[in-house]
Amino acid sequence: MDDQTPPHSLDPLLHRLTKWRALTEPERAAVLALPHSVATTEPRKYIIRQESPSTHSCLLISGFAFREKIIVNGSRSISSIHMRGDVVNLQNSLVGVANHSVQALSPCTVGLIPREAVAELAFAFPNIGMALWYDTLVQASMFREWIASIARRNSRARIAHLLCEFGVRLEAAGLGSKLNYQLPMSQEHLGDCVGLTPVHVNRTLKDLEASGDITRSKREVAIADWAKISRTADFKEDYLHLASRTTTPAFV
Amino acid sequence: MDDQTPPHSLDPLLHRLTKWRALTEPERAAVLALPHSVATTEPRKYIIRQESPSTHSCLLISGFAFREKIIVNGSRSISSIHMRGDVVNLQNSLVGVANHSVQALSPCTVGLIPREAVAELAFAFPNIGMALWYDTLVQASMFREWIASIARRNSRARIAHLLCEFGVRLEAAGLGSKLNYQLPMSQEHLGDCVGLTPVHVNRTLKDLEASGDITRSKREVAIADWAKISRTADFKEDYLHLASRTTTPAFV
DNA sequence: CGAAGGGTTGAGCCCCTTCAATCTTAGTGG
DNA sequence: CCACTAAGATTGAAGGGGCTCAACCCTTCG
């Protein structure tokens, strides 16, 4: 998977930020100059643990992870899936204490950046600060879409929507094609993302296969007709904000 | 309701920001010096309309509003309720175009601040910028809690949780007591918040009343035993982050 | 070869929806 | 003051989507 290691371990972060906002050369250099250490994690290990103080921002350099919340009755809710370029705890690195956990789905490489360094960078370079802020706003937009999905779509649309979103994000991260990819998670994980039981996820996947929306083989998903699955999913990718950069005036 | 108009129309914003972060006197002055105009809205009117460009940040000075997303099949999802002190579109004023609407629940007074002014303030005063950013992160935390609630709690817990959250936020905004308040929304609105039909909201409310969790009279809600309803709601208010300010080091 | 995790399938049930009717309340005009 | 209207609250009956429980199978790995 890591045939060609990126020239710089913070490249995925730079790639992400420039997606949100054009950066000047000094700004790019400042991003790459962030102090950091690199660590690896095994599947199932916690990258961020609920209740523990967050001293570092965690950039996901490779691998997949997910954000979970445990409900009192023991059930689990997954509120996001993370992949290369995601800063997994921008959401709470400012807050100081996490009220949820982030767990590795696959072997992960993470970049650990002291949270003061991130905040200092954000305000030393407003343009970068805007891009970071923007990133958290896009995540919030995804949260809202998930709320709508779980609240008002049926199981077919929910699963199909998740598959569409994952594919589009994979492609945007340069990790493959939205029409054909490998899911890093089990059907139980899928269910915890969309508020269904693993049993019903299984039946819904088979149903989507029967209706010709997807083809499956183990955890590989193939989509022959993007327009078709978009329709059953009610998927419109605008909420991911991948198309256009923020138009907020520059400060430089 | 407006017996004593606040000395300054941006006071609710200042109040909110100082909840997240201690501000110096010049910083407080800078917040209040923001250019703005004040407008009023009738119930059912749109404060922010989906697809329209956002040129201003909207501070809710008085009244209640909600954020909605319309799903293709015609159903509606409400992703947040807003009250005094909320900047209703910090979430998308940076993005430039809204992918959802914000609608007034009651007569509202809003402060309209040019979005460039907000961004400039945020970077001229990092401390204020941090507070603004923090505010959007708290909103994201609420989104995640709603995802968990809709996905994994039954109707009793969902409704009870919403009632708890609303009460606590009311109290934090200085608008009343969490043990006794007036709901500004219909049962249909409640249902669109938690992913239920109005019919079932009605039955659930009666059920909560029968079990002694709440007392009702029209849209007034009274809670005799906070511990009891917290238990049935699985409500822990930490996700609202009202208790403690961010511990991120100051920059001033 | 045994164990464990995860995928698949069946049967029955129940929470919530759907559809539809009735009631209450507030507002409006005569 | 009252008829009229509309929005919202309430209630009943019936149906279905997704859950629960409980198997069984398949693959991987030590």
Helix count of chain A equals 9
Helix content of chain A: 40-55%
Name the structural class of chain A.
Answer: alpha+beta
Mean pLDDT of chain A: 89
Strand fraction of chain A equals 15-25%
Query: What is the chain-wise order of helices and strands of chain A?
Result: HHEEEEEHEEHHHEHHEEH
Uncertain ranges of chain A: none
Q: Nearest-angstrom radius of gyration of chain A?
A: 18 Å
What is the largest interface, and how many residues per chain?
Answer: A-B, 55 and 55 residues
Tell me about this structure:
2 copies of one chain form a homodimer. Chain A is of the alpha+beta class and 252 residues long. In chain A, 42% of the residues lie in helices and 19% in strands. In chain A, α4 packs across α5 and α7 crosses α8. Chain A is globular. The mean pLDDT of chain A is 89. Chains A and B meet through β5, α4 and α5 of A and β5, α4 and α5 of B. Chain A binds a DNA duplex (30 and 30 nucleotides) through α8.
List the helices and strands and how they pair.
Two copies of one chain form a homodimer.
Chain A: H1 11-20, H2 25-32, E1 37-41, E2 46-48, E3 56-62, E4 65-70, E5 76-82, H3 90-93, E6 101-104, E7 108-114, H4 115-124, H5 126-152, H6 155-172, E8 180-182, H7 187-194, H8 198-210, E9 215-217, E10 220-222, H9 226-233
Chain A binds a DNA duplex (30 and 30 nucleotides) through residues 154-155, 186-188, 196-200, 202-204, 206, 218.
